[in-house]
Amino acid sequence: MIRVAILGAGIGREHLDGYRALPARYDVRALVDLDAARAKAVVGDSGIRVESAIEAVLGDPEIDLIDVCLPPHLHLPVSLQALEAGKHVVCEKPLVASLADADRLLAAARAADRRLTPVFQYRYGPAMAQLRALIAAGLTGRAYAASLETHWMRGPAYYAVPWRGTWVGENGGAVLGHAIHNHDLMMMVMGPVRRLTAFTATRVNPIQTEDCAAISFEMESGALVTSSITLGAATDTTRIRFCFEGLTAESGSSPYAPATGAWRFLAREPYD
Ligand SMILES: NC(=O)c1ccc[n+]([C@@H]2O[C@H](COP(=O)([O-])OP(=O)(O)OC[C@H]3O[C@@H](n4cnc5c(N)ncnc54)[C@H](O)[C@@H]3O)[C@@H](O)[C@H]2O)c1
Q: Which residues, given as ranges, of the chain have pLDDT below 50?
């Protein structure tokens, strides 16, 4: 049984639902938020204790895992603190804002012999299991090209939260904050990027960071990928298309968990 403290009562609410779905493995003991009313509304009468100070759970020997659902600028310092306190860490995206900081966290996790788990939920779900099975069976072959769409809708209400849309608070714009899941999935399926070129622009909302982008990737395998990103779409739609030697895989369009929807796998040579 892993005893958990969740930090942050925004997306932390959905993490709590996730732990509750696995009651034999996880026991959520505490929810920490500066906004006590928000945290209390999330825990209800479940008996989960509400704290306002992160230190209260970092120093608690009855907590094994710290789940960081705080604004992006707190991910690095709080994850480091938690690892140094001997806790395992789950941390929301974006884990950190640079490779150097990712290396720091990895080194801290290894030094503490604790597990560090970034949240990349696109990797999970039935359609991803199907794609992995097709790859493992050797039916995909070489990847030629892919297209990724992160076409979501964000307006003034979303940016009313002070950390959002700022370099200091959010550490990046739509490329880091929203398209991160598509780019993670691209690398999981197609391997590392050799080089890329991009245009970014702030066109939808009056914010510091970018909210539109067009990126072209050349993968180390030679495959070519385009990623189109905007927070000015009419709906929240994510779409992914991988074109392999053996088949084309087309995702569903759910923004937060595209691998839960039905994908289409179309063979180039139906006999194979
Ligand atoms: N994986 C996903 O699809 C997904 C979806 C939504 C959000 N997120 C990520 O989750 C993180 C949180 O986003 P959110 O939308 O829940 O933000 P939010 O602002 O709604 O919630 C963050 C909470 O943290 C609390 N907080 C801030 N500083 C604190 C501190 N020092 N001590 C205690 N509590 C503190 C705030 O009071 C707030 O309630 C972000 O990094 C975001 O990118 C990921």
A: none
